[in-house]
């Protein structure tokens, strides 16, 4: 076992665990992240954890401040913003959570970053280099979970039902005749690497298709055109590492044409959440089993929310997995666990413990073939 684990233990035995709450970010889901972070900071057990808020601006600067100066207009999802009058810092590679321009270090990081440059493996890679535990999926699971194209191909190849789709890499490549022949109308057009329904639109004919693909391409260099699946939207939360468990399923009943960004975060009456979903025991078990299977297949850990369509004939189709789902108190992921017997504060605690558990397991692995004088491959100096 490497020396950085002993450093972590010696630090936390006598002091509170220092949790870096990482939020904001460069993606179009910046404001969603701010809302999630505020809720986590409000609910985390302050007797056990010392909170270190770290906000990332829309230009990529990392800022650290105290909780009272964290956000501006925190009660208004349209105006919420990161307060940029804070100390600029960075995470130092290979230094066990050490922050630049700051004498302290974080013991574990809770990344509450939605979308590109946060949920896609980029930040997770940085945290790996910094040798610090972090909540959620690793680099591979995060990247696969973010890229809807790669995700759906893996699901399809594993025999897991998902909506038919086409992928395009430029506006000029989009072929309305191909879309009509292979998917029919209507279809949904989505940026491949985006969440929270950002840039998602419905097209009912070729003319509408060419209109909405432009918006999708304004968010990503690759878009997905997906068949419209008739059915109820069922969501299931997953928690764990090697032996994950699933929550009771819930259902989204949107008041809008579909579950758009506005319906999720702006319009208070944009959708109704039914928890638990009205399903018979056999279907509940099927949803939970498939959610765990998807979680494992896509190399996830810590947390994830798997979304489904339940078709009129009873067949389930997987929409996607979210590796860092919305984490406000009214978001589906924490609400599903609340109704499954794990309150919000306890859920945060479990996620932090899972992060440390995964870190310890990975740190025990050999990283070198051998060290001079020690054929076991272990470095006597802990490097």
CATH architecture level-2 label of the largest domain: 3-Layer(aba) Sandwich
The end-to-end span amounts to: 11 Å
Shape: globular
Number of helical elements:
11
Poorly predicted ranges: 1-13, 263-267
Topology:
Elements: H1 3-12, E1 17-24, H2 30-43, E2 49-56, E3 62-64, E4 71-72, E5 81-82, E6 87-89, E7 108-112, H3 122-129, H4 139-146, H5 148-157, E8 165-168, H6 176-182, E9 187-191, E10 201-203, H7 206-217, E11 223-227, E12 232-240, E13 245-246, E14 250-254, H8 261-266, E15 271-274, H9 281-297, E16 302-310, E17 316-322, H10 332-339, H11 344-363
Parallel strand pairs: 1-2, 1-7
Antiparallel strand pairs: 2-3, 3-6, 4-5, 8-11, 9-10, 9-11, 12-13, 12-14, 12-16, 14-15, 16-17
Describe the structure.
- The protein is α+β, with helices and mostly antiparallel strands and 383 residues long.
- The protein has helices at residues 3-12, 30-43, 122-129, 139-146, 148-157, 176-182, 206-217, 261-266, 281-297, 332-339, 344-363; strands at 17-24, 49-56, 62-64, 71-72, 81-82, 87-89, 108-112, 165-168, 187-191, 201-203, 223-227, 232-240, 245-246, 250-254, 271-274, 302-310, 316-322.
- The strands form four sheets. Strands 12, 13, 14, 15, 16 and 17 form a six-stranded antiparallel sheet that branches. Strands 6-3-2-1-7 form a five-stranded mixed sheet. Strands 8-11-9-10 form a four-stranded antiparallel sheet, with helices on one face.
- Mean pLDDT is 87; it is low at 1-13 and 263-267.
């Amino acid at each position: 076992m490497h020396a950085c684990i002993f450093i972590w233990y010696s630090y936390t035995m006598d002091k509170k665990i220092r949790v870096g709450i990482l939020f904001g970010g460069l993606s179009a889901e910046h404001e969603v992240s701010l809302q999630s972070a505020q809720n986590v900071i409000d609910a985390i057990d302050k007797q056990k954890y010392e909170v270190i808020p770290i906000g990332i601006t829309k230009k990529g600067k990392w800022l650290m401040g105290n909780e009272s100066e964290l956000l501006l207009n925190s009660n208004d999802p349209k105006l919420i913003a990161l307060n940029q009058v804070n100390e600029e810092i960075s995470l130092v590679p290979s230094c066990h959570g050490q922050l630049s321009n700051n004498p302290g270090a974080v013991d574990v990081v809770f990344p509450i970053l939605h979308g590109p440059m946060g949920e896609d493996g980029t930040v997770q890679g940085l945290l790996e280099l910094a040798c610090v535990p972090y909540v959620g999926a690793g680099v591979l699971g995060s990247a696969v979970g973010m890229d809807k194209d790669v995700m759906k191909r893996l699901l399809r190849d594993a025999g897991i039902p998902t909506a038919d789709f086409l992928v395009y890499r430029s506006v000029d490549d989009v072929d309305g005749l191909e879309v009509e022949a292979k998917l029919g109308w209507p279809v949904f057009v989505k940026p491949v690497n985006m969440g929270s329904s950002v840039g998602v639109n419905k097209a009912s004919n070729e003319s509408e298709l060419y209109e909405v693909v432009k918006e999708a391409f304004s968010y990503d260099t690759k878009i997905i055109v997906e068949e419209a699946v008739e059915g109820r939207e069922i969501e299931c939360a997953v928690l764990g590492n090697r032996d994950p468990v699933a929550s009771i399923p819930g259902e989204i009943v949107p008041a809008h044409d579909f579950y758009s960004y506005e319906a999720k975060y702006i319009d208070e009456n944009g959708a109704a959440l039914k928890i638990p979903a009205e399903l018979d025991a056999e279907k509940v078990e099927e949803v939970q089993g498939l959610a765990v299977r998807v979680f494992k297949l896509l190399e996830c850990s810590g947390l994830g929310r798997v979304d489904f369509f339940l078709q009129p004939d009873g067949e389930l189709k997987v929409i996607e997995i979210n590796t860092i789902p919305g984490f406000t108190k009214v978001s589906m992921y924490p609400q599903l666990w609340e109704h499954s017997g794990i309150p919000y504060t306890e859920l945060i605690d479990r996620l932090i413990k899972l992060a440390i558990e995964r870190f310890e397991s990975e740190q025990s692995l050999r990283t070198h073939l051998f060290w001079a004088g020690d054929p076991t491959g272990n470095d006597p100096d802990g490097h």
